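ESCALATION

Customer reports they have been waiting on this structure for their group meeting. Please prioritize. Original submission:
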Amino acid sequence: MKPLTHLLFASLLFVSIGSAKDGDFQRTKDLSKDDYSAALEHCEANLPKVWDVLNSIRENGVNVRLTGERKMGPGKASGTDQIVISTFFLTKDLPKFPEDRLVIVLLHEFGHILFNRETNRSQRNPVKHEFFAFAYSIKAAIKLAENGDPGPLEQVIKNLKLRNDTGKPKDPHTIAIKELIKTPLWTSSLAQLESE
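Update from on-call: job pushed to the front of the queue and completed.
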């Protein structure tokens, strides 16, 4: 199966942001210039779907900052225009984080950015935030599957089922997942995967 093109990812992620300019690739202070360059080169050469998603996110006015920090997990959104990504997850061969799962992580974090752009602070709470981000990643994964790449959809369904079963009951992620699996979106994601 041929990897999806940057154009497809860009169309999946397109969001009307007015005249906002493209974001930039940046590095945090903890990451050397050499490690930063090596991570970008590795990602472009070895993770084409991740590379396309990163560029599509950047083209939607989001700065993509690379860090050597890994305690935060693979990625974290901040505000309306920044995602921080751990180079550890981009450059290591981690069986629990194959490329399709990294695509979902990026889509999820971009979902947080969109939620921040579409709501004011008084409308936000952690459960709503997670629900929106999970729903966005599922919708994008369904579109990818419809266009011939079911890998991200397989990953999002697998990992949400796992977190639903093993997540801490009071964690906003777990609460959001438990709400999400009761929706028509979840049902349609399962049906899409079964049709692959």
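Sent to customer with the following note: Confidence is low (pLDDT under 50) at residues 1-7, 15-19.
Escalation resolved.
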